[in-house]
Every structure is written in C-alpha cells, then in structure tokens.
Amino acid sequence: MTGPGTGRGPGARVALAVGALVGLGSATATAQPFAGDRTLVVMVGAPVGGARMARIDASRRALAPSILPSSRLQTEWRTALGFIAQQGPLVDSKGRTYVVGESGEVVVIGRDGTVLSRTATRGTQPGPAALLSDDTLVFVDGAGEAVAVRDGAVIWRSRFGRASPLHAAPVALDDGGVVVASGPDLAVLDSTGAERARVVLPEPTSHPLLSALGKVVVVGDSGAVWTWAPSAEKAVRVGGFGSDIDGSAALVDAHTLVATARTQTHLSTVDLIRGVDTKLVGPLGGERWLGPPAVDSSGVVCAVQITPAGEVAVAIDASGSERGRTLLAGPVGARALDKVDPPSARAPLSPPSTASTPPTPSRIASTTPLVVDGEGHLAFATLAGSIGVATGLVAPVDAPQAQNAVVELVADACAPSPGRPGAEAAVVGLAPLPPRGLVALCRSGLVVAVKEGRPAGGSGSPRL
C-alpha cells in the first residue's frame, strides 16, 4: 500500500473514527454525525452549491441546490475531451466541472468551457468520484485504491480494499474525509488518505453509498440494505428490496429509500427504521422503468418509463398515486434499447477474478439519471442523446387531473459513441451549472453546457 494510509493498525483506525460528519443534503437536514458511543463531531461544513457527488449529494435524490434552466434552452459551450466517459460530471461551488475518463484521467473545466487542468492518475477502471470539502476529487480504481486529485496533481493514494471492477460512489464528509467502497470493503479515509475505520460487508456493492440516520447506508448487489456506524465493527442488515436494484437508491425522506428494481418492472421503497419494503408501483404490462428515480423537494418521486409511445417521465407521490406524466421522446430510442436482453434475462454478477476484468455489461447505464430542482423543473437526456427540461410535471395535490407539462429539448446534443454497445445511454450524466444552467457529459467525452436564453434572443428550442 502506498500513501499516507500505510502502516495504520486496527487500533489507530478505531481511534481515528471520531470526526466523521456526512452532509445528507436532504430536506430535513444538511449534516448529521455518524452515530457511535465515542463519536466526536467536528463541525467543518461542506461548500454550498454544485454537484459534489454522484446524484448531487449523499441523499442521492438528484435534487439540485440551484435552479435549472427551464425555457428557451440553448447551448452555451461544447468542450471535447478526447476520451470515453463512464461516470457523470461533478460541479464545485465555483462552477467548475470535473470529469473522470475511462482511463483515469481527471479533467477540470472552467465555467466558460475552458480546460483548466488534465491529470493522468494511472487509475484503471475508475469508479464514480466525489469532491471533498477542499475540492479534492477522490475516486476508487480497479485495484481497490482510492486516488485523490487536486490542482492538477495526484496528492495521495490509499489502498484500502480488494481489486474490483465495480465501485460504489463515495460519500464526502463535512470534515474533509470520505467514505469509499470496493467490492465488500468499506473504509473511512481522512483528508490525507489515512484510514480511520473499515468494515467488510457480507456481500459486494456497486451502488452509490448513502447517508441517513447518522450512518452510512449501503445497498448490496443482492438488494439487501445495510447500515454502518464507523465506530462499529460490523454493518447491520436493516431490510432489503428483494432483488438487486437498477443504478442507485435515493432517500425519499429521513429514513425511506426508493429504487427501481433491476428487472425494471417496479419501483420499491425500504424503511430503514422498520425494515419494511413496499412496492410503490407494481409490475407493469409491457412497460419498463429505467434507471434510478429522482426525488423533488416535496418528496415526489420522478422516474422514466419506456412505453410503446416512447420515453415517458412519471411523477408518483409517497402513496403510489400518479401526480403527472409527460412524453420526453418518441419510440426510436426505446426500440434501440429493446434490441438487447432485459436485465432479468442477463447472467447474474459473479465476483471478479482479477483487477483487469472488464465491467459487467449489466452494470452499464442504459439511461441518463434525472435531475430535479426546487421549482419543479426536471432535467433529462433521451436515449438518442437529446438534452431537455420538463416543467410542470407534478400536478398540485388538489388538482382534478394532472396538468400538461412543457418540455424543451436541445436536440442531438450527444451522439452515440462509435463502437460502443447500442444499449448504452449517449449521455452519461447531468449536473446543475449555476446560474440557471445545466452541464451534460456525453459518453464520447464531449461536455455540453446548456443555459436558459433571454426572451428577446432567437426563436427558442423546440417544445413538445
């Protein structure tokens, strides 16, 4: 092992597991200490704004802290990075965009689209990244090593876990540390990469880590849900989804998770306190749910369905009642997706034999995760690579029927990558880019910034 984490024994790990503080990013709290008998909370505070973790923050709700563009969408800038991207972009509080390439290269882009730095990390098979409180970017590579990059240089490496081609998205801590995972191995690292605490789960996880109730929440690759306080020697199983999930779970409230079944037939919730799992929306006829749901500021769940008509966004409240739906794109992309076997027909995941094992195809995203904001705007990308925003999807509770949403598109913003599987989404991820902007990362390595145009400028973007 290399880096500052070398040579730390179990005693040191327990003694150092006293300052962990996680920013939840939920409607009920912005930060909460990990529970434990000897926990000492050190309030440092996380930067405000941006998208510092996969799906914005540790709640994984995809709820943007800033307002998304909603009308007269237009391209602000386009920057080609020259590599294939597998993970979505991150954005710091200064509006800088961070991208990790397929070979581990880290690129930082200024608010005007200018490339500020490129860093070759030699990190193979990089997983999703997180931005720490000092804007250090951390990801886990296929060797089970956490790699930290800041100001155009690798500042530390810490080998904490076994080799794995699939990694859970890390959770950044408000005290400058980070919780990382590789396969079944979880560890808390401080801002220098030194190990504070660790645990080995009974199963591997490739889903983003969450934070709730003062603990790390882990959804295993079986769909089981575990919680871990870093002062504890073991993780505790608190429930499960019944099967593996598609992408990421998200917090609906302080203690309830929602996720799409890996079979794409239904959405389910798990109560972290009671351990109860519930089908929020049951199995459907010929329709499929794609990717992880987003949760707006009122707790309404938004998800994408593939229907005979095409790609449809659906809003559902906590009781499972539909609050609105709108067509995002026609059936062209949906037909392309149906050319591959559904997840239920694919071979189950098997443990990797070496660090060079390629990612399992069933873990490649087939759709772009949604992003929502506090004003009811829903940002999305179609399977064909268009970027759009839907406004007015969620009808008021007392409305006699769902209102008609307005959808605007920047057509064909991302083209499918040559030579890549047809089931991959052309857009890897979206993130808010203030003021009233949105940044999209194409799988081809093209970064596209979308902004809201002025009323007097041009004819605007097409509406559906």
Structure commentary:
3% of the residues lie in helices and 36% in strands. By secondary structure, the protein is mostly beta strands. A four-stranded antiparallel sheet has the order 3-34-33-32, with no helix packed on it. Strands 4-5-6-7 form a four-stranded antiparallel sheet, with no helix packed on it. The chain is globular, with a radius of gyration of 21 Å. 55% of the residues are buried.
**Whole-Å distance between the termini?**
54 Å
State the oligomer. single chain
CATH architecture: 7 Propeller
Mean pLDDT: 82
Helical residue percent? under 10%
List low-pLDDT spans: 1-44, 339-364, 457-464
| CATH uppermost class | Mainly Beta
CATH topology descriptor: Methylamine Dehydrogenase, Chain H
**How does the overall form come out from the CA principal axes?**
globular
Based on helices, strands and strand pairing, what is the structural class?
mainly beta
Q: Strands of the biggest beta sheet: in what spatial order?
A: 3-34-33-32
Strand percentage: 35-45%
Total helix count?
A: 2
- CATH superfamily heading: YVTN repeat-like/Quinoprotein amine dehydrogenase
Question: What is the count of distinct domains?
Answer: 1
| Main β sheet profile | 4 strands, antiparallel
Features:
464 residues; mainly beta; 4-stranded antiparallel β-sheet; disordered C terminus
Could you give a quick summary of the protein structure above?
This protein is mostly beta strands and 464 residues long. The chain is built from two helices and 34 strands.
